[in-house]
Amino acid sequence: MTFAACLLACVAGCKGDDGETETETETDPTTATTATTTTTVGTTTAGTDPSTSVAPTTAGSVTTTTGVMTTDATDTSSATDATETTGDNFMCPFGQQYCFTVSDLQYPGAPIGALAIGQLVNDGALDLVVGREAGFDILRGAGDGSFELVEVEPLPGAVLSIALADLDGDGDEDVAVTQSVAGEVRIYLNDEEEFVPGDVIPVSGFPRALGVTNLDVDTNVDLLVAAETDGGIQLLSGGGDGTFMGAGFVLAGSAPLALTVAPLAEGAFNDFLVANLGSNSVGFYPGQQGGFGLESSVASIEGPRAVAVGDFNGDDNLDFVVAGEGADAVGLALGSGFGTFTTPELFAAGLDPRALVAGDYDGDGALDIAVANRGSDELTLLLGDGNGSLGEPLLVFAMLEPSSLATADLNGDGGPDIVVASDGAVGGGLAVLATDGL
């Protein structure tokens, strides 16, 4: 059972123009990772109580919306949309120099609560983990942008966050997922590419986002869990064998939904950022032996839902971007390298932005932002200039209630690709947008 993100050369004269717009859906953001940890991108997802899950559909022909995006729009409150069609396999939003090829919609009608990308099978290709309303699926990547469903893990509740890392020290990536309603984190150990249920760790407070870190000087992987209703972050210390135990609780703001682990300040330990939806703030926690220091508020934005990090101004220090659903904007704060940040500058993104990821999508060497706007049913790109500023939003893909994103080079052509998913009750599903290389 495969689905292809068809990889063809972006050439003029493609035939047809049957662009399509998907239907509608519903969720919170999800963990969107570009590799095996959450140090690059972290978003969270909201889920619902268990329901019937829908398996992915069999591969079909690639049907895409093709548009050439212009940058001379005067209304920056919504995406620029110049939907001039140039073919039925491509979207070329940058003057047809760099193109996206879009797969058929997978899991149609099934709300998707979380996405994660990593190498679960030792074949050199990246794989995809999909969180559903009642479990998660593992899709093996072929290295060309296509995937095959290889494992289905049923669970009693929705999977709202996924973390991939070597949790038992055997060299293979394992899977950790949240079960928010049940109040637990579940571990699945990779045993020769079969995933065996392992430790189940109780976590109170409706656990949402997961982060991968190392709390001390050992080599064991530890976990962070954002507890929404408890207003804090649960620290879980790894035993190196796939088991975990509580290692403390760090207070956060109201309703922490998303977190991102990264070396944001000089020091031997990773730091992390958390988006507090209820208090409209982003908190920074400096890493230290055995845990983290006290939270300092580093941003204020209405309805923060997702946080991602990257160097947006070329000074070799990590900055962060935050999706503000209430502001219909993305905030970009520049980092000093010492744990302090500028006041975020706001850039229009679309309506109700729920998830974001960073990558160089136009091939100019500067980081850009892809944003899932649940309220306006669209995926937009905000192109970075390399100096700490972002452009106006460009419409890339129409999808009902997109809420989760993940990004990585899925087809091996050197360009970052995007997986976008919807948690909506009507539409649901996911699609792969493959770049045509850089």
What does this structure look like?
- This protein is an all-beta fold.
- Helix content is 0%, strand content 42%.
- It is built from no helices and 32 strands.
- It has strands spanning 2-3, 41-43, 100-102, 114-118, 127-132, 135-141, 147-154, 159-165, 174-179, 184-191, 194-202, 207-213, 222-227, 232-238, 244-251, 256-262, 271-276, 281-285, 287-288, 291-292, 296-300, 304-310, 319-324, 329-333, 345-348, 353-359, 368-373, 378-382, 394-398, 402-408, 417-422, 430-435.
- Strands 1-7-6-5-4 form a five-stranded antiparallel sheet, with no helix packed on it. Strands 2-22-23-24-25 form a five-stranded antiparallel sheet, with no helix packed on it. Strands 3-32-31-30 form a four-stranded antiparallel sheet, with no helix packed on it.
- Strand 4 and strand 5 (127-132) form a beta hairpin.
- The radius of gyration is 20 Å and the shape is globular.
- Residues 1-78 and 80-89 have low confidence and may be disordered.
